[in-house]
Amino acid sequence: MHDAILKRLRERLAVEAGLAATLSQGLLVLVQKPDELLAIAQTLKHKFAFDLLLDVTAVDWPQRQPRFDVVYHFYSTQDHVRVRLKTAVSETSPEVDSLRSLYGSANIMERECHEMYGIRFRDNPDLRPILLYEGFEGYPLRKDYPKQREQPQV
Predict the structure, then answer these.
(1) CATH assignment of 2-122, given 3.40.50.740, 3.30.1490.190, 3.30.460.80, 3.10.20.30?
(2) Between β-strands 120-122 and 95-97, what pairing exists: parallel, antiparallel or unpaired?
(3) 33 dihedral zone (left: phi>0; alpha: psi -120 to 50; beta)
(4) What is the CA angle 63-57-4, rounded to 5?
(5) pTM metric for this prediction
(6) Could you list the pLDDT tens digit for every one of the 154 residues in the chain?
(7) CA triple 102-105-108, angle to 5 deg
(8) Which residue, of 31, 41, 97, 122, has the greatest Cβ tally within 10 A?
(9) Strand 27-31 vs strand 81-89: parallel, antiparallel, or unpaired?
């Protein structure tokens, strides 16, 4: 039943939104352009009952252009399935729309992603650090971050 739901969802989203949609290890993976991210998240929430945002993170591909993938994981409490939504952003402009208007939990997750990777989330007014102190320089989960770097004293 799980596979049938994902297959139906994949077919409908590919037709309706023009998404690249694949099944990977039992998980539906959607790839979307950054400027269409908010629209597809609204569709997932309102049309397909993905009412829970589980995670927002990024993946750093230093040798690739665009360098970063911003990755979202959604869950449907109605159908009990997960979906991964990915969008690629460049190193020169690592910015996507915030999903906090749809999911309240996005506020904290976007702050953490911003703090660790430097991804900016439009319309999120509070991107203060959560895990690091205010004067921390750089983004520690980027693959080119020097591990031995000394930070300024606070």
Answers:
(1) 3.30.460.80
(2) parallel
(3) beta
(4) 105
(5) 0.90
(6) 567 777 777 777 766 666 778 878 878 888 989 998 999 999 899 988 999 999 999 999 999 999 999 999 999 999 898 999 999 999 999 999 999 999 999 999 999 999 999 999 999 999 999 998 888 888 999 999 887 777 777 6
(7) 125
(8) 41
(9) parallel
